[in-house]
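Case 301 in the screening queue. Each case pairs one protein sequence with one candidate compound; here the compound is NAP. For every case the pipeline is the same: read the inputs, emit a complex structure as tokens, and attach any notable structural observations.

Predict complex for case 301.
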Amino acid sequence: MKKEVLLIGLGRMGGAIAHRLKNLSWRVVGYAKTKESRERARKELGIEVIEDYEEFGRFEGERLFWIMVPHTAVDEVLNRLKLLLKEGDTVVDGGNSFYKDSVRRYEELSKLGVNFLDVGVSGGVLGKGKGFSLMIGGDEEAFRKWEHLFRDLAYEGKGYAYLGKSGAGHYAKMVHNGIEYGIMEAIGEGFELLKESPYDYDLKEVARVYKEGSIIRSFLMELLEKAFQEFGNLEEVEGYVEDSGEGRWCVKEAVDRGVSLNVIANSLFGRFDSRKKDIFRNKVLAVLRYEFGRHPFRKKD
Ligand SMILES: NC(=O)c1ccc[n+]([C@@H]2O[C@H](COP(=O)([O-])OP(=O)(O)OC[C@H]3O[C@@H](n4cnc5c(N)ncnc54)[C@H](OP(=O)(O)O)[C@@H]3O)[C@@H](O)[C@H]2O)c1
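Case 301 output:
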């Protein structure tokens, strides 16, 4: 079985994927847009990094290209790759792309005899250790051909699933992110109430006890305890929370299908509000996003 991946995008997630694969004896050949990122990847990840797309041309046999770039850059990357793709190659989009774009890309690449798999990746940068959760859509045959790759990347070798035809992976990731928005919002609200309560709670201690065997124990609760350890009571953290698109797609999709997403929609709107007001629960979300994905948060002056 071939253990070689050609990876485009060497940022937070591309770097984590490269790190994990390299430790599992995969040959990873990377490319990133800027010279600085390419240099950094060579130094910090110790992988082969090429200077231009044409260099991918020297790799033989059926190749797997893994794209890990912001969704706005995927078409640009594919336009470059199309010049060198061959029948039998497989392209994976592991970023958070809108599922309808993935179906369009699948159809375009099918005409060239190239497989396209849309893979939702969850687990954040910490996935480089125990592995990621992978939601996979596309042709089952292409998935089977590269199942050994997904198994190696997956959390404890089990965190992967083939979910159906093209778009199914990114659709499942879109819903996953919507759920994530909702859970984070609930945690944020709960901790805001704890903070405003008549008790002088040590919030780190509350997060710790919630994490130990309670019904709401979760990875996010573990990260929140860590965030309180790292950032105290978040006085320095601005309650400004970004969104990177999946929540909006999720809510729009629900509107199109007549499904009520009360919690998820409200949590999305909460993020919008956070950019206007400085409220405590949004500080909680900001540091949680920092914890799982190293998304930067704004600091107060
Ligand atoms: N961070 C997370 O927790 C997380 C979790 C799951 C999924 N995702 C998804 O994974 C994808 C990547 O996210 P990330 O957090 O790793 O982003 P990131 O840290 O900003 O890295 C993006 C990478 O893409 C490269 N890139 C950008 N535009 C490019 C282009 N036109 N051509 C070639 N390379 C280009 C960048 O190169 P330069 O550095 O040279 O500009 C960089 O290496 C996104 O779709 C994101 O939504 C992120």
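Case 301 observations:
- The beta strands are 4-8, 27-31, 48-49, 64-67, 90-93, 115-122, 133-137, 160-164.
- The chain has a mean pLDDT of 96.
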